[in-house]
Design goal:
Number of domains of chain A: 2
Shape of chain A: globular
Strand order of the largest sheet of chain A: 13-10-12-11-15-16-14-17
Chains: A alpha+beta (354), B alpha+beta (489), C alpha/beta (399)
Order of helices and strands of chain A: HEEEEHEHHHEEHEEEHEEHEHEEEHEH
Number of strands of chain C: 8
Oligomer: heterotrimer
Largest sheet of chain A: 8 strands, antiparallel
CATH architecture of the largest domain in chain A: 2-Layer Sandwich
CATH class of the largest domain in chain A: Alpha Beta
């Protein structure tokens, strides 16, 4: 499907400015566990869709923000390519994740430490700022340092700086082969063993730990994967693609407990006293998913002592998500002001602050 | 505008209380060598040069300048090619080379904390015994500083696979112009709130002064091999680049050098490139020992099918190092062919390589100035080096005009005016070509969010709307543009 | 780089040379990374790129003071920048021109002048230097221990083999080495003798390097001519090579042709000396020497003269490796040790800082012995090293 709603979207923004209305930007509505903005009107981008430019040899794809991620991934797969950062969809039923929503949230999957984040792969955006101006930043080439890197600033900004209309992202060739190896290992030793694997020049694409097992995902040419697999041993996991998908989309039974789910981003080697049955370790140790009823203060202190940060990712009701660090709050406000002087877009979504 | 006598006196008195005599340069004799960075065609004496040795001193200098409303231009090793560290006549040149300590190498967390003056190569040399290295390797890595790399979001010959500076930096400590120390990111793979880190990478010293950097370290690949493929036609080499990528191979590096560039490089480091080559491609493959030879063979096959008349693989590590030394030294080695060169940095879609190179050749003939090409072909990041002689009247103007045409061409084919060198002072007009006034205004507002008085590196990276308007008017008045067939911006 | 040298200066050969050198510099800054003083001080004014710029200003007629002079003085002339320079800037030649020019324009203080004159009077003369050293050695027991270590003890001179082979080479003794380390040359002579080459010693005093470093052109020319005169009869009789075991002197001999290029009487002879001069390693690497060192751990301090002037990087290490030494890696191996002729006396602070850094790097791989190839480095390092420092030629004879 191919629809260009940019003019209408721009009109809606201009109208909102005139009426002094605030706008809640809506995409596919997939991430309903996140609080939505309380605004006077809705700016719905889900109809603004379609791939604009895709040349496999150039390693990028440009699409309208409302294009479903799934559509993009299927197209890329047809050309043996992929979004290397494995952005989470969290699609449910009819509510399909869109490219714009993925970029606004900025989540990356298990391949993050080895292939980069979604932010790393964003090359350019076309957007509407809070003055209703249509602006183009970055582009479609791999390297571009003309002007400030506004495109990457948009990643994870939750739509508070503007509405994304079009996005160009870098794509990567899909590896020939994937194989996942399992090693029995208590969680306390997991991070150290992961580090050992990293030093061994293996074609790694994920290092995680769940329920007593260290998970080593290898990807690459057949030669590389089989040589690596022979070198390190372990048990070969079956149906591994589905397994990783269930971890990425948090549909794995681990995530089905009815407890608050915390996301802790920490230095990979951090030694955190989290009970084994409550944690899923991803990103080679850099990301810890913790299901617990512990207090926010306890968890956040633990993360910050380790040199990282934590926020509540899912709970019974919608959650706010990450908040700017206190020391950077003023700067965040000034940045918001510079893009959206009237506070038009997604009020309250930046950490409940603005 | 220069500093008023009273401001200057107040500035000197107050700086004198913070910095030692040797760290504060004021008379013209001492200032002269600081009048330019790696782009010596643009020169300007600063009012004062400060050489602080500690973060506290940097902080104090900034506070003084903020209070007295004196512009500050931060500078690292001064190897930049866009005049980003060109001093401000009425300002302080804040030289950060003395902040050159590696503060921590944190091997378990695969990162290091460094001061901004640490040389890029010095860091990798220090971490190599631990089997780790810092991936971004700009050609000037022997001399350029990591602080400067962050300011420019530098790339390098291996960024096709390993990314630019922004992809390899985890945290920054930055001083605002008011002297406030901000802690951005850390040793984690992401940070809460806006991605200020990404915004700072490549901000050319306009937003803050970076005083500490946490970089990611990667494990040294088990094996790396490089090949040289020689072509009798630049277009064939350009097409070969696309063919390699289209085959689903992401080499660690994929570089092109044309005839002139080869000649210069050979003069400095004798590698023995095929003499009759119109262009060569250097292609590096790295990874596990078992996979590298296989991939190398695949690349070799593609090169031959794309018309390479000779493909040579470095026989050992020493030869591999020599290939890269020669490639990385090519810019300055061009100094052997010509007293001066003007280096462009446009990036274009790969599939337009052959076409753009051919058009650059035509432009070179039209302007009567030779152009040597040595660049990151895999990224589509061109570096046409326009050879000229600054001692010959009118040559620089001609070189600049030719450069502007090349950049216009890059933008027209869907690329950008700068891939990794930054806008600095010399591509301000190019910015007017690439961005609309609303976009430039947005940049200026971002700048103001950090630096409301506009004291940090003023007049660089983002042109004023006034300048662009004048430029636009000039084009209309003259009624002639170099490429009437090109789409206008 | 753009230049604006005065038309009058451009008429002179110096002017032409300076202009060509300045214009070959593209201001890339690669040289700064290789420069010892820039590494220590981080100031553009104390790196080669900044010095080139200061010399440019000086030659273009900008007003200069002792400030510029002090930055030029701080240069060690290690020439690491030349090795690093991709565009082939002949930095040392430009520095010579710059130093000569500033000497004319900025008079030095009286104590500075006296010190420099004294150095030029004492060091180049083997006799005067020997007397001074004898005196110092005699007073040594009376001096504080901190000073004592700077006075090297007398060393045996070793036996010089008889001249008996038809293959002949000259060994130029130089000025201070016969007094400080008389054994080095004789060990080379014995080694050559064992391989069918007779070495003939030539005592001609200073090769000219000391006064050249101190920008005393007249004295330099005089020393060079004396040396050439001493060498000439043997050259005419058909010797194969002129060897000097001090890398610093070797670098100087290599420059004879350039320095006397305009001397009507001596230019041809100077060129001949330059042609014939060899570093010992160039002779020895061709000889079939037995492996005898049995894995002794040695760290080699490659003198700047050997690496940057003579361009013989890695060659001594290869010989040492071949004869069985375990040659250890040395970090920052290209960074000067701070000796640099009279530099260690005139710029003691920087010289000591560089020495400390060099020794730290040399100790890193825990060597049993440190080897070098230049008398200056050897004495400078030995004065502070916890591990013995020896000329590599002496090592070939141990066991």
């Amino acid at each position: 499907m191919n629809h260009d709603l940019s003019l209408s979207l721009q009109d809606q923004v201009k109208e909102a400015i005139a009426k002094k209305h605030t706008l809640a930007i809506v995409g596919g509505g997939s991430k309903s566990f996140l609080q939505s903005a309380k605004a006077d009107a809705e700016l719905n981008l889900s109809g603004h869709r379609g791939v604009l430019n895709y040349e496999p040899g150039e390693l990028f794809i440009s699409a309208r923000a409302g294009t479903p991620l799934a559509e993009i991934e299927t197209l890329l797969a047809d050309h043996r390519q992929m979004l290397a950062s494995e952005p989470q969809h969290f699609s449910q039923g009819e509510n399909l994740a869109t490219l714009g929503g993925a970029v606004a949230c900025g989540f990356s999957g298990s391949r993050r430490p080895f292939a980069g984040s979604l932010r790393d792969h964003v090359l350019g955006v076309n957007m509407l700022n809070g003055k209703g101006e249509r602006l183009q930043f970055g582009g479609q080439v791999m390297k571009n340092v003309a002007g400030f890197d506004v495109s990457r600033l948009m990643v994870g900004a939750r739509g508070t700086l503007g509405a994304l209309l079009e996005i160009s992202v870098k794509v990567m060739p899909k590896p020939e082969l994937e194989q996942t190896l399992l090693f029995e290992c208590p969680s306390v030793h997991a991070v150290k063993r992961m580090s050992g694997f990293v030093h061994r020049s293996l074609p790694l694409s994920a290092l995680a730990w769940l329920e007593g097992y260290l998970l080593v995902r290898l990807e690459g040419t057949e030669t590389a994967v089989s040589a690596a697999s022979a070198q390190i041993g372990g048990d070969v996991a079956e149906q591994s693609a589905n397994f990783w998908l269930s971890l990425r989309e948090q549909t794995h039974p681990f995530f089905r407990r009815h407890q608050p789910l915390w996301r802790l981003s920490v230095p990979p080697a951090a030694d955190l006293p989290i009970p084994e049955n409550e944690v899923f370790i991803d990103w080679q140790g850099g990301l810890r998913w913790w299901q617990t009823d512990r207090s926010a203060e306890y968890i956040q202190t633990m993360a910050s002592k380790a040199g990282g940060y934590a926020y509540l990712f899912r709970d019974a009701g919608p959650v706010i998500g990450d908040s700017p660090p206190t020391g950077l709050l003023t700067l965040h406000r000034s940045l918001k002001q510079s893009f959206d002087p009237d506070g038009l877009f997604n009020p309250g979504l930046m950490g409940g602050q603005f | 505008m220069s500093l008023s006598k009273t401001t200057c006196a107040a500035l000197m008195t107050r700086l004198g209380k913070v910095l030692s005599k040797h760290a504060l340069l004021h008379d013209e004799e001492a200032l002269r060598p600081y009048e330019c960075d790696g782009l010596s065609a643009y020169r300007q004496l600063p009012a004062v040069v400060c050489l602080p040795e500690t973060v506290e001193q940097v902080q104090a200098v900034l506070r003084i300048c903020d209070e007295l409303q004196v512009p500050v231009v931060p500078r690292g090793a001064g190897t930049g090619l866009s005049g980003g560290a060109l001093p401000d006549h009425a300002g302080v040149l804040l030289v950060l080379t003395k902040l050159n300590r590696i503060l921590e190498i944190d091997a378990p967390n695969f990162c290091a904390r460094v001061e901004p003056g640490v040389r890029n190569l010095a860091l990798s040399e220090a971490t190599r015994p631990l089997g780790l290295y810092y991936a971004p390797d700009p050609s000037s890595q022997i001399a350029c500083s990591i602080g400067g790399n962050v300011a420019e979001n530098s790339g390098g010959v291996h960024c096709l696979k390993y990314g630019l500076t922004v992809h390899n930096v985890l945290g920054l400590k930055m001083l605002t112009i008011e002297g406030e120390l901000l802690d951005i990111g850390g040793k984690t793979l992401d940070a809460p709130g806006y991605d200020v880190l990404a915004l700072l990478c490549g901000s050319e010293g306009l937003l803050g002064v970076i005083v500490e950097i946490t970089v990611r370290l990667l494990p040294c690949p088990e094996c790396a091999q490089v090949m040289v493929a020689a072509f009798d036609d630049v277009a064939k080499a350009g097409a070969a680049v696309g063919n390699v990528i289209a085959a689903g191979i992401i080499p660690a590096g994929l570089e092109m050098m044309d005839k002139l560039a080869i000649r210069a490089a050979e003069d400095f480091v004798h590698v023995g490139y095929p003499k009759h080559a119109a262009a060569i491609l250097l292609c590096e493959v790295d990874g596990a020992r078992v996979e590298v030879p296989e991939e190398l063979q695949r690349v070799r096959q593609i090169m031959l099918e794309s018309g390479a008349f000779e493909v040579r693989i470095a026989t050992d590590e020493a030869e591999r190092a020599l290939f890269w030394k020669s490639r990385k030294a090519t810019f300055p080695a061009v100094g052997r062919l010509s007293p001066d060169y003007y280096c462009m940095d446009g990036t274009i879609p790969r599939h337009r390589l052959a076409e753009v190179l051919t058009r650059i050749e035509a432009l070179s003939e039209q302007f009567g100035l030779p152009v040597a090409n040595v660049f990151h072909a895999g990224d589509g990041n061109l570096h046409p080096l326009i050879l000229y002689d600054a001692n010959r009247e009118g040559d620089l103007t001609k070189a600049e005009a030719l450069g502007a045409c090349i950049l216009r061409l890059c933008v027209a084919v869907g690329g950008t005016i700068t891939g990794e060198h930054g806008v600095g002072i010399e591509k301000l007009d190019g910015m007017c070509m690439q961005f609309k006034s609303s976009e430039l205004s947005q940049f200026l507002r971002v700048k103001a969010a950090f630096d409301p008085q506009g004291l940090l590196n003023p007049g660089k990276a983002v042109p004023t709307l006034h300048r662009c308007a004048e430029l636009g008017a000039m084009h209309v008045h003259r009624g002639q543009v170099p490429f009437p067939e090109l789409e206008r911006f | 780089m753009q230049t604006w040298l005065p038309a009058e200066f451009m008429q002179t050969s110096e002017g032409k040379a300076a202009d060509a050198i300045l214009r070959s510099c593209v201001h890339c800054g690669f040289c700064n990374a290789a420069c010892p003083t820039y590494t220590l001080l981080g100031n553009e004014l104390d790196g080669p790129r900044g010095r080139i710029y200061q010399i440019k200003g000086l030659l273009e007629g900008s007003p200069v003071t002792a400030q510029t002079q002090s930055h030029l003085d701080r240069c060690l002339t290690c020439r690491a920048c030349e090795t690093a320079c991709p565009s082939g800037v002949q930095y040392a030649k430009l520095l010579d021109i710059g130093r000569a020019e500033i000497a004319k324009r900025v008079p030095r203080s009286v104590p500075q002048r006296l010190l420099r004159r004294a150095l030029r009077w004492i060091i180049p003369s083997t006799r005067r230097f020997g007397l001074m050293l004898m005196l110092a050695r005699a007073l040594r027991p009376l001096l504080p221990s901190a000073v004592q270590r700077y006075i090297p003890l007398a060393k045996p001179s070793g036996v010089w083999p008889q001249v008996r082979h038809s293959r002949r080479m000259l060994i130029l003794a130089g000025c201070v080495q016969p007094v400080l380390e008389p054994g080095i040359d004789s060990s080379l002579a014995r080694l050559l003798d064992r391989h069918g080459i007779s070495a003939v010693p030539v005592y001609a005093g200073c090769c000219g390097a000391v006064s050249h470093h101190l920008t005393a052109a007249e004295q330099t020319h005089a020393h060079i001519k004396t040396t050439i005169d001493a060498l000439w009869p043997s050259i005419e009789s058909g010797i194969e090579a002129i060897i000097t075991t001090a890398g610093g002197c070797g670098a100087m001999l290599r420059d004879y042709r350039h320095i006397l290029r305009e001397d009507a009487e001596y230019s041809a002879k100077a060129a001949r000396v330059t042609e014939l001069c060899r570093d010992p390693v160039q002779i020895i690497e061709a000889l079939p020497i037995d492996a005898a060192a049995k894995g002794r751990r040695v760290a080699f301090q490659a003198p700047c003269s050997l690496v940057n002037a003579l361009k013989l990087e890695g060659r001594v290490e290869a010989v040492l490796q071949r004869v069985g030494f375990d040659v250890l890696p040395v970090q920052e191996s290209a960074l000067c040790c701070g000796s640099a002729g009279t530099y260690s006396i005139l710029q003691a602070g920087l010289a000591n800082e560089l020495r400390e850094r060099k020794l730290k790097n040399l100790y890193l791989a825990e060597p049993e012995i440190i080897a070098t190839a230049n008398i200056g480095c050897l004495t400078h390092l030995n004065a502070a090293s916890q591990i013995p420092v020896a000329h590599w030629l002496s090592l070939l004879e141990m066991d």
